[in-house]
Amino acid sequence: MDGKFDWLNDKPWTTLFLDGNHDNHPKLAMLNDVEMFGNRVGVLRDSIFHLKRGMVYNVANRSFFTLGGAFSIDKAYRIEGRDWWPTEEPDYHESKRAYESLDKVEWKVDYVLTHDGPSWARDILHSHHIEISYTVRLLDDIFGKQKFEFKHHYFGHHHMDRTVMGRHTCCYNKIHELD
Fold it and tell me: Domain spans of the chain?
């Protein structure tokens, strides 16, 4: 896996990512932190940075609220510490930081980047019932605030490319250019 990071690091761009539910969260927590884009990021390589849960970042004159993590519906088939970690969802402190970060910017950002989506987006994307997790309830609350203003929301947990309700896009293979 490190070879893939080396390949990406050698590209002429900066790569920013947020964590999903199957990422090695203890390893991400051990990354060196630096101040970048107006907040703390974890340094994976010289040009690869982890955007942390519940933060607002300023990149290329645009603001981004980030919230990684999600609940694994398949964790019964996974092995703790190898391909599943108990820290897959935001905890209380990360949730609190999310609200504090949004308060600081008066609940106005250009873009929202999350791993999972709110329950109503999940309902549109899937015809079967999916457990409503802590992460989804947190997103429901954040998106339910009338004062929350944003241009577009991107998320990827559901492994498909589809826009729902006009400005919420589930991303999987397609690359989206921001306006």
Answer: 1-8+23-50, 53-78+91-174
